Amino acid sequence: MTPATYQRSTYFALVALIGIIVTGAAVRLTNSGLGCDDWPNCNSEKLIDVSSTHAAIEQVNRLLTGVVVIAVALAVMGSYLRTPRRRDLVWWSWSLVLGVFANAFLGAITVWVDLHPYAVQGHLLLSMALIAAAATLVRRSAEPDGVPRERVTSTRATRLIQVLAVGVTVAVVTGTVVTGAGPHAGDENAVRLNVDIPWIARIHGASVVMSLLVALALVVVIRGSLDDRRRVQAGLSRWLTLAVMQAVVGYVQYFTGVPELLVLAHVAGASVLYVVTTQLLLDTSRPTAKLVP
């Protein structure tokens, strides 16, 4: 298998993992979290049950898990078939396998504890870690083999990118806390977190603003180095565009009563932003040769 062919299979895994996050959010937003009250069967009588809208929506999310398993399996097999085989690609592909099975188990626990917000939070955060791993695999899968790597020359720029990644992670974590206290529980009888929503929403918003300020500081720092601009400017521009869009959607949804479609768009945007953040981190160390076409 050529590196370019293998990279296409890793894209499949990444898109599938983002899809499972978005459909999972749709389950929660439609109060379909307990449309199937058992695992792996939908209920005590049927493996698959689409007799109600809630059950059908939950089933779509569960069935997409099968697509994820296939995509991840292809990524693992491809890592062994790729010519030349690379140990780092084998490791990253197997990390997806471990993460997917761990998340499936956590998904079962989430159903068994009637959508307790801590379990729902853990389910989403592990999914975010998985798409970060998949984004890393996509980038590394097409890199040329056995060539030197070049790094961002400015230590300040590297540190700012690392701080930016931490800021995005904090925003995601605090966002799950807001969700855990908010109205979209996945089921109308699900337990909610006993925290003040405006207070935790302000913390979430502050983490977003701080991340944007760090990104702007990074823009200033890389202006002094042509090489560093060449390495990170494209990724930083993508990050800034997505982050501003996410901030706008977040504030609009908060002040309009968190409508379901906007929340779904915010979750999808957070997933893509996490991918772009991972890619920006990877931009700090890249091979000196071009990626394989």
Task: Describe how the helices and strands are arranged.
Blueprint: H1 3-29, H2 53-81, H3 87-112, H4 117-141, E1 149-151, H5 155-181, H6 197-222, H7 226-255, H8 260-282, E2 285-287
Antiparallel strand pairs: 1-2
Helix pairs in contact: 1-2, 1-4, 1-8, 2-3, 3-4, 4-5, 4-8, 5-6, 5-8, 6-7, 7-8
Subunit arrangement of the protein: single chain
Helix content: over 70%
Radius of gyration: 20 Å
Q: How would a crystallographer describe the biggest sheet?
A: 2 strands, antiparallel
Tell me the total number of β-strands.
2
Low-confidence stretches are none
Distance between the termini: 14 Å
The count of domains is: 1
The amount of beta strand, in percent, is under 5%
Major beta sheet, strand line-up:
1-2
Determine the mean pLDDT: 85
